[in-house]
Design a protein that fits this description.
41% of the residues lie in helices and 21% in strands. It is of the alpha/beta class. Helix 1 packs parallel to helix 2.
Length: 184
């Protein structure tokens, strides 16, 4: 099982960089996805440099999110993008990155992401989550359908905890993403 800790500094109950160090040193998580969508690109770049330094020191995989220029400025070849941003990337821009993941919410989006060259997908939200209280979860059948129809790794996201991660894996997911559990 592959577990990705997804950041949200607003959920963090201690100092954010202290939390990052704990995640980076915790063998439970295989990677950290630095997903701070409310920052400006310059704020994100500064934070990314600090987080990347911790991850490099501990050997933890780190994936940057949304800000391609910040990732390039940091010389970091791993990026996760919302699908609308991934759609707008040109061939030259894609060439810098060793791995580009994207978020999907339907089979059609998943198929499009594969066509565009995504290395992996995060798909959700699977279970009820406080991050999206007004949207019903897509459920385990959704993740099963995606996993059986696309040829790249799919990671479940949304309301996933240590208690329910196994049910996501049982549907064919390669792993899970956890935000609330990793930030608290």
């Amino acid at each position: 099982m592959y577990r990705i800790a997804v950041t949200n500094r607003h959920l963090c109950q201690d100092d954010f960089l202290v939390r990052i160090r704990k995640l980076a040193e915790d063998p439970f998580y295989d990677a950290i996805l630095l997903r701070e969508k409310d920052m400006t690109e310059e704020e994100y770049r500064k934070l990314a440099r600090k987080v990347l330094a911790v991850c490099q020191e501990t050997g933890k995989k780190c994936v940057l999110h949304t800000f391609c220029r910040a990732a390039k400025d940091c010389g970091h070849p791993l990026i996760h993008l919302p699908l609308p941003l991934f759609r707008t990337m040109g061939k030259e821009e894609k060439a810098f990155f060793r791995e580009i993941g994207t978020s999907v919410h339907s089979l059609e989006e998943a198929e499009e992401a594969v066509y565009l060259g995504a290395a992996y997908l995060t798909a959700g939200h699977i279970f009820p989550t406080g991050c999206k209280p007004d949207l019903p979860p897509r459920g385990l059948d959704f993740i099963n359908n995606l996993c059986s129809r696309v040829s790249i790794p799919v990671y479940g996201i949304g309301g996933i905890s240590r208690e329910n991660e196994g049910s996501v894996m049982d549907q064919g997911a390669c792993g899970v993403c956890m935000m609330s559990g990793s930030m608290r």
